[in-house]
Known about the structure:
heterodimer, B: 22-stranded antiparallel β-barrel, 5-stranded mixed β-sheet
Amino acid sequence: MKSVINLLVGIFLVACFFSCKKDELLDTIPQTIFTDEQIYRDPKLIIGLLANLYDRLPRYASLATGNENFSIFDEGMWSGLSNNDVEVRNNLINYEFDRWRIWDYGFIRDVNVAIDKITESSSVELTPTLKKQYIAELRFLRAMDYFEMVKRMGGVPIITKQLIYDFAGDPAYLQQPRNKEEEVYDFIAAELDAIKNDLGNAGSKRQANKYTALALKSRAMLYAGSLARYNNQPGLTMSSTPGGEVGIPQSKATGYYQKSLEASKEIINSGAYTLYRTNPVLGENFYDALVNKNGNTEVIFAVDYLKSQGKRHLHTFNNIARSLFEDGGQGSSFTSPSLNLVESYEYLDGTPGTLKGVGTGSNTAAGQANWIFYTNPQDIFANKDARLYGTIMYPGVYFSGKPLKIEARVYVL
Amino acid sequence: MKVRLFQWKIYTSVYRQSCCRSKKQNLFFVLVSLLLLSVAVSAQQKIVTGKVSSGDSVLTGVTVNVKGTGTTTQTDDQGSYSISAPSNGSLVFSYVGFTSFEIKIANRSNIDVDLQTEGQQLNDVVVVGYGTQRKGSITGAVSSIKSSDLTRTPSSTTSGALVGKIQGITARQTTGRPGAAAAIQIRNLGSPLFVIDGVPQSEGQFNNIGLEDIENISVLKDASASLYGFRASNGVVLVTTKKGKSSQKNSLNVSSYYQLQNLTRYISASSAGDYVRALAEAEQNAGLTPTTTPELLQKWRDGTEKGFQETNYRDYILRKNAPQKYVNVSSSGGSDKMNYYVSMGGLSQQAVLKQYNFKRYNFQANVEGTIIKGVKLGTQLSGRIESRHEPASTTGGNTYDNPFLAILTMWPTERLYANDNPDYINADVNNPSRNPLIYNENVIGKQDNTWHNLASIFYTSFELPFGISAKATYSYNYKQNKNELQRKSFSTYSYKPATDTYVPVPFNLALRNKARQEIQENFAQVQLNYNKDLGDHSLSAMAAYEYASAIDQSLSISSIPPTNYTPLINLLNINGFTDLYNISKRASVIGRFNYDYKQKYLLELLGRYDGSHIYPPGKRWGLFPGISAGWRLSEEKFFNERFGKIITNVKIRASWGKTGQERGVNAFDFLPGGNFGSGNYVFDGGLVTGIGVRGLPITNITWVTSTIKNLGLDIGLFNNKLTAEFDVFARDLTGIPTPRYDVLVPSEVGYTLPSENLNSERTQGVEGIITYASRTGKLGYTVSINGTLGRRKILDLYKPRFGNSFDEYRNATANRWADIHWGYQVTGQFQSIEEIKDYKINNDGQGNRTLLPGDLMFKDVNGDGVITNLDERPIGYALGGNPYMSFGMSAGFNYKGFSLMTDWAGATMQSYYRIFELAIPFQAIHNAPEYIFNDRWHRQDLFNPNSPWIPGKYPPIRRTGSGSHVDYITHSDYWITNVNYLRLKNLEIGYTFPKNLSGKLGLSMIQVYATGTNLFSFDNVKDIEIDPEISFNTGLVYPNMRLYTFGINVTL
């Protein structure tokens, strides 16, 4: 009997212990998830947070993603994978109503969460100066995101605090009306004015500093001013809403232009940036100005890629000309320039850039006298604005030591 | 060494003989002694004689064995036997088709025996969750299959051997590539949980265990699975490996086979003549003048002149009689204190594609010993090396796909080699990356994937007073996967006849990837059992506690090497690196209680209190109870008196149980904070890894609850010669996660609401098996058929909404069978141009201007004169999944040493929708199947557009790229086949040499057999040349294999 009692007591004790500890028994520690306590006390991790947000800044088409969108506008045409023809590019008849929509409130929420958490943080590692700088940088990112939204959507709701749902079934209290279009531009200007001196990052082209903020402000104000001015021109029937969610009164145009000018002047007068002019060959200089990372005094803000550290894009892989491509894959010449783009580069003598010999004369014995015969394919592009060479690879130019060949062939289906 | 053994109560009659061993046997015994203690005993011998019969007929060839020894003999033509045995030993009589019978000698010298024919034996022990039960007292739906029925199928995977053999299992072998397993499900519920020797394991582990090492497989299909909690909603497959038996003769068994593999079916590509004619016909059908001439066409048909030679890619790519080899050596035996089973095996399977292969080496070592009375200690160790070798894939996709695609991609008018010079791979083909010469490891490089697995189980059990026993188990598994890819750069060549030169067209595909995955699994369990018989009442109880954790880590490095010559990765060339880590923890308390009254009324209560790490603290534990009851009607006096002579056994079973399903939620979803490694950005100091703010913590979602109900009937007739089991079941899943869409949280909050446990569905069906096994004289035979029907139905959906009544008709799923396939119904084909002209219905959406005779005529269901998606109706079942209904049959007989066994498996209620190459001529400018180009509507004269139309099966040939014609883009039942098949899975002819013959060779058994697998099938996809089990809709996959196997089993 005693042993039975002992057994029962034993079982009871085990059961007690188990019911207290049963949840801890199953605790696991994730290796890629950091807690708020870990993140918002360590400047290194906050930098990681910023990296995530910089990386997520909206870009309609970038070198890494949305390659096909480079050919959605008049400058380029799609010549890549044929199955992408369906949804993009050359034969696009219907532009769906939300084609350029952006409603990036996931980004806004994350910025708002980070600002709140940094503000709340009582960590000694996070000095007031650092806090101020991080919050300034987060507000810059938020302003830039609002600019991307307002320029596409008109006025959007300005959310600067976390919106937390209580799971009670009625989320009506979370609803925020759209702000006026001008209010969003004013918000951007005010935010940038408020933070420009807290940003730090002096001299950086990859991270926001005072001049980046001014550049963004100047650009946003230019947009706002132009919307005010040109959308109200007589004869234009641009849409506007009675509540001002879309449309800015014409009277505000000058004010916005003035702010834009002032911001730009502040950058110019600071002497921090000059035009890039190191290569005597102007075409190459133009190319260098866009790709040279070292000592480039012209670039204010750019997304950088680093092959050696694994930050890569496939733009060059996808856009290498067909005659130069090196692997058996299908990637080549995704985006091809339009004739329109090529001809928009003027001749050096200032005459319009229409290519000579094309479309003149007729294919009759008499008309053939008007044709121009070139010795080399690149000769037709001679004497044009050097930026053509810096922008477009045309037949006969050399790329990585090989001449680009373009031949007319017929693709037989 | 002669040791007197401790005599154990249960085995009082067990003695062991140790004399006259051959030299070979001695060597073997020495080997085994190194591993174990080999013990032997002798006792006083006497000669026992007698006669064996069954009713009126004497039985010849009955094996008579002195229990616990290797002494055996067989009855002669008169049914007589004579054997030397210890006077206080026991004799065991066994014969195929009969219940084996054991009798104590008790000093008699003449023992006559009357054997009973075997049916489904009620005293057979069946493995169930956390223990075993007598078949007669099981109340849940449990099927089991034993070793000999499994190994009959020479399959490289366990699932392949299981198909069609027992009710409740549905399977689809969608590819026959080496080492590929069939996707098996229990009652179409989904992928089940696999448990090997009591330890949950992955499906890969289940499929790659040595087939010879399996003692039996039990399938828990209803509430009996509740014992496995969270992971058991789709049923449980329990595998038990072989153990040595106490006091059993040491035996050595060698089995080996050699197999020839051939395709069951694969599409025949069109010949060059047909291809060129089809091109011309496409031009004619498009209203153009064919660009070819009768002379050119004839040259292609002849195929002799240079430049007009045909290439048959199928013959180049696929070889015949690809070999598979298998050998397994096992030994088992036991004294009354120790028993062991050790086994080693190797399997090598070549593909029908050259250089592609699969190899596996397995070992299993199960050893158990009694260290002191009532205390046992044992271990079950198993390991395997499983490797797959293939030429690398050009695309990074599946290596087996491209060769099969190439057969139709390449034009028969193209050549493999540039200028037919075997030094140069031809680049001038329509798709150079599909030139099959590339799929060679010397050109494209290779990929090797290898699993190194070690599984170990250690256990000890104690017999305690009061009928209590205890068992403690610990298991550790280590699995490592190595993936080595070395893809090379190479050139193809374009021949320029003008200069007689070969211009290289480079493929810079060099890529090197090294990936390692390491899985470590810990499992510990303590279990208490209690058994008590109180006269008519007997009860038993089991309680267990279990804890399991697993860590899964993987590392992968890839580089773009500058050269093909070294496989080593250089820091400079690294272009990819990933490092992943996953951990899981589970703990459970398990209990079962059984009660029966006179074995007549049976009751089982079971349950599992299961905890999983993926849920937030406080919500981690769930209780999953089950109950089942049975009534053995045949044990009732009133029943037995009336029907007892015919009906031997009747049992009615009912069960209800709950299990869980972890679905719609991932580990750590409940945590806020940040995700390391989400995005990255280059700052001035270099690249910084991003940390993404995590979304809303998810704490509101819990597991999906699964409720299984089952009603079953077991019947045995004619002394259990005829047995049957039928079950009706329904499995409800409730709380399937879905978002509450009508709670409109504005998108400006920046997150989406997590799903909630709202939807529900049911899978219901019936299953059954009927077996007849008997013997008349020397002829024993058995026939067994089984079938399973299981279909899913959506029950409730969270507030479905519809725009109009058609929308509701078309898109509602609640309270309907799931996976209904909608499409157009084809009523016929246009017979003439006139018919098209006069046709009132706008058939192609373009005023019928794209139609030609032979094009498909769709049913205008709503009668609005135009074919639109409003005319779609249900036309088929789910695509690609397991068939709703599966059936199987086994039939065979044996006569003296000969045996013939057939296994059939079939299925119905599944749909196959064919697209691309299998339907469309010149799909993506490729070649087409021979039947598409030949059996088609066409004009009589290729060069006369006014010649009359000749009917065929398929629409007229067009060359419209990816089939932009209405015939192909509309989803119609013309291209859907509701596949039915019944295939002869196995035909095995075996011969066991007479004992006296094998005895002369010092062997106790020699068996040889020949097996044909997938020899033929009755099905309705013969005309499109696909195997009935494949699911890939272009048919361009490695199909199932037709196998010829020649094997031998030898037992020492």
